[in-house]
Amino acid sequence: MDILLIGDSTIDEFLKIDEAEVTCSKDEINCKICLPFGSKVNVSEYATSIAGNSINAGVGLAKLGLKVSLDTELGFDAFGNQILNELNNRGINTKYVSLNQKKITNVHQIIFYENGRTILTYHEKYDYKIKNWETLPKILHHTHPPFCSKNVRQNSSHNKGSLIILFIIIMIGLSSSLLCLFESVVVVNDDRFKCRVTGT
Length: 200
Prior knowledge:
Shape: elongated
Strand content: 35-45%
Radius of gyration: 20 Å
Helix content: 10-25%
Number of strands: 14
Number of helices: 4
Largest sheet: 6 strands, mixed
Distance between the termini: 22 Å
Order of helices and strands: EEEEEHEHEEEEEEHHEE
Strand order of the largest sheet: 7-6-1-11-13-14
Mean pLDDT: 78
Structural class: alpha/beta
């Protein structure tokens, strides 16, 4: 395994509308899109796509020929199955993808009108757990570090990946609260198990 990506996944729904009203403040900076209340609004164009930071990176890396695995949580629904099937079709290992029967897959609805867009987001609260990966990846990319969430619980038997992350935090003197300032954490391992953390 060349790289393991951990993070939320979502379905992006793209909706183009042709009838709306945009109101702006005097400075024309703070603008709002207005739609008829209590009525149906026609959508002229519609498309869907799998998305999420880890998926976006994974798809690109897989195209470059790297062996990519994804660790993510999905709802047990049509969107979850759509994401899972498309990942498999794109050559991404989905062994660590979990379908949760009690959860709903994340959804973003991107509304396009004229030259602007408005995004409606739904994010499920997943109970992430650090899994026991069979092999340690050469690169570990985590868009939501596990030590930044109260909802994340480690398994009783720590895997090498989690131990290395904790080792790095101690060695470079970074506290977990400081690491939470990063949007993502990348752990890179060489053949001698030396590591470094970079924030993006």
